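Internal QA ticket QA-208
Title: Verify multi-chain structure generation after dependency bump
Assignee: T.L.

Test input:
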Amino acid sequence: MAIASTDPPAESRWWPAARWLLVVALTTGVLWLTRDALDKAHMALAFLLVVLAGSARHGRRLGFALAVACFLCFNFFLLPPYHTFRVADPLDWAVLATFLITGGVAAQLLYAAQRQTLIARQRADEIDRLSVLGAETLNAGRAEDAVVAIAEVIKATLRLVRCEIWMHGPETNGFIRVADVHARPMSPLPFDERLFGQVMDEGLLAVQPGGAEAVLTRHGLEGLGAALREHGDAHGLLIPLRVRGDGVGILGLVDQSPMRLDAGQERFAQVLSYYAALAVERVQLVADAERMHALREADRLREAVLAGVSHDLRTPLTTIKALAYELRATGDERTYLIEEEADRLNALVADLLDLSRLNAGALPCNPVIVAVEDLIGTALQRVAGAQGAREIVTAMGMADTIPVGRFDPGLSVRALVNLLENALKYSPEEAPVEVRFEREGDFLAVAVLDRGPGVAAEEAARMFEPFHRLPGGPPDVRGVGLGLAIARRLAEVQGGAVRYAARPGGGSSFTLVLPAADIPELTDAEPSPTT
Amino acid sequence: MLLNGARFTVTDAEANTPADTILIIDDEVQIRRVVRNALSDVGVRVIEAATGRDGIDLAAAERPLLIVLDLGLPDMPGISVCTEIRAWSSAPIIVLSARHSDAEKVTLLDAGADDYVTKPFSTAEFLARVRAQLRRARIAEYPGAADPLEIDGLVIDVARRLVSRSGRTIHLTPTEWDLLRAFVRHMGRTLTHQQIFREVWGGGAGDAQTYLRVHIANLRRKVEQDPVRPRLILTEPSVGYRFDRPSS
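Actual output:
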């Protein structure tokens, strides 16, 4: 698993050397035969030609070797006195030295130029592969296809036999294999949930030596080369896939022989890992979106069913109530009960619908400037039917300026009605329910006080949960335990709250808190002409 | 008596002028029946239509004094029926709604409906609304235009711009007076906020719209005996206000 390298492969290193030494010998022979007719410069040029040709063909090392060999031959055979390494003329030393330096520099320059070319070609290849990968990833219609495409490119680029990509599912807290490409049937990486978790969470690489168990290294993705050098016989490699610091999955690589990556491949593997991480994240996001869509659809369906039931229920309830009213003429007291029960059923369905909408965040809220008196008055008007013989006392300071708030009048009236109905339910007949108003800083506080049994401290928090009914309440108290839960939620969607406190002297105090508003003094319109 | 074959049913109640006819447009037989029975106390002739189209035709043919319209019709939206009838008839329209939002009710009232009751409504409440609308329909002039109006101890003299309770004159600001006059003119009708703006401020937007509820609260403090338990100016939260004689 290696791509073309700058140095020739080891097994063929000596053969070209021998061949080129033969060329040096031949050149020396020819020059020796004609040495009387030739100038020293001609000889030096001929040798230089051999050095350049050799280093161009086989690289820097051979170039240096040839330069030295030529230098020796030149000196021994062609410079007088012949057949010794002594040189008679000191100028000849200069010729020899110049030759040696020129040969060496030429070999080095050639080497550098060739190396630049090679690196440029490799870069071009990398860019080609990455652009192909980018295109494939973007073209893949489904997120899963993009992951497989990336696995294919990783396997092909790094010349592996198998590449697997595992996605971590946050909701199942487990790993799912989303891509598995392999050249020929061969055993996949042994799955080890604990190790996979460590690799992903700690962002460390794991290697699997041939036939042995995979072990965690101390290197992250940036230390990929170092990890492989430390674990020389790694046949398998686990790479953490992370996006913006969060683990999304695992990239598993398998090779037949121990993995070796040069600097280029290492960088490539790192880039590809990031691509794979992004592709896995895309799969996760698509899965999330699908899940959200399913949830929304379920919500919508529940809302539709409730709304449909509520609608279909109202027509027969209207008939029942109207018939009960007609029968009232006969003097049968039970007709009142029929009407009351029909109203209860209607209220229950309306509560369920409200709760469903509150849960789905689908209750429209339009805050406007509302006078507190209007809020309390409308709520009192609404509970007049349920009030029976019980009295409701209002304690409102009639200050000159009318206290106002900014909230949704419809939602707030319902919240206050629920609190009033609750108080009327638990209050003994002879004790009046009290409604008090106070301004508390930026909020309005409308308190509903009763002389009922009160609420035990441990129940105080739970009573606002839907369908929670207080234990030990009077047996004739009706309802399914939605009133307080809905009141609190209605207040909260408007930026308010519902508070509970035990009432001094016995009973409960529920306070509806809503945002207050300060308005300028109203400037009145000009008197309009009398009609 | 049957008109146009089986399409319309016309029930004769007690002796009445032909104009004292109420039209019920509702596809549910049961609802038509209970509404008809409830109206037998009012002493009017009741005619019925099961679809919006038939309802419009019958309203054109019979010129009823009042129309009761169900919103959940199978053939066309209730609001279209309302708009079409309102184009050529001023007969009050009371809408029966089942699960319609406040916004839809406002749209309906702005489109010309006079009042609405939500199912399951109580017959007593429904009859009170019908009586109020019939009163309005039978009186050609605005209430209080000729003689001072006396409601729940409050005396309103529209012509002389005077309001008093127990002989004591109540001082209203110009805006409060305009509001009260609008309420009196449309007594028994549910007025949307928009309709009140148009009536009092001529549709101009601005502070007036924002503080309409505060103006009403001020007016209540002056004309109601107990502003926290109003008997004259009633709030329909998120829809508007209704001014009427106390029903009890």
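Spot checks passed. Chain B touches chain A through 51 residues (CB under 8 Å).
Status: verified.
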